[in-house]
Amino acid sequence: MWHFSAGNRSANYSPGAIPPEIVKPDVFIFLGRLRPSAQPDVDLILDDFDRLLFLYRFVEGHDAYPAMSQAAGSFRFSPGCRIKPSATNASVAERKLDVLLRHNDLQVALFNHLAMLHGQNSVAAEQATGAGTFIDVAVRFGDRYRFYEIKTAGSARACIREGLAQLIEYSYWPGAQEAERLVIVGERALDAEAGTLLRCLRERFGLPIQYQQFLMDEGRLVE
Hints:
By secondary structure, the chain is an alpha+beta fold. The chain folds into two domains: 1-87, no CATH class; 92-221, Trna Endonuclease, Chain: A, domain 1, CATH 3.40.1350. The chain is 35% helix and 20% strand. The strands form two sheets. Strands 4-5-6-7-8-9 form a six-stranded mixed β-sheet, sandwiched between helices. A three-stranded antiparallel β-sheet has the order 2-1-3, with no helix packed on it.
């Protein structure tokens, strides 16, 4: 992925959400694969076109946002080292600040929602684990607890990827308070494949893990 703006081409970087600061007129954004022009691989090109077609239809306004997933058996080994930028301009810091502020807003809204359901004395934001980490929101039910970890990623899959390890550490680190339920909270809806992953984690490994969408405009979790 790379972009061209104001006469300048950026360095190549790993595909991801488009930074807010370049969402404006006259910016060209490239998403695809770099290959030597003297060695075209037609099958590879067509495969990439197939994978990007859903995103293209969404951008053109014809389809819903595509689930971030891959078809079964689509793994392909690609040798080499894809170098990512080691530094960039101040826009990255601004974007991180935007994400942090959004996280803070979600945390307050989630706290208020859970406090309304379970009472102010049963809900804690930034709950210390005792191991140097903090749970976004914890809810107490007598001697049982639920831990909620908020993620601002652009899909349920990405939220699960980012939040799963943190919740496992919060609940199962030696000496930690074990939770009866671990909940990853994001603003995107849970798609079928992400739901299948969570069921696998619950049934095969016994992890009490769930994902819940938070509707910011309504200030509530989707059951």
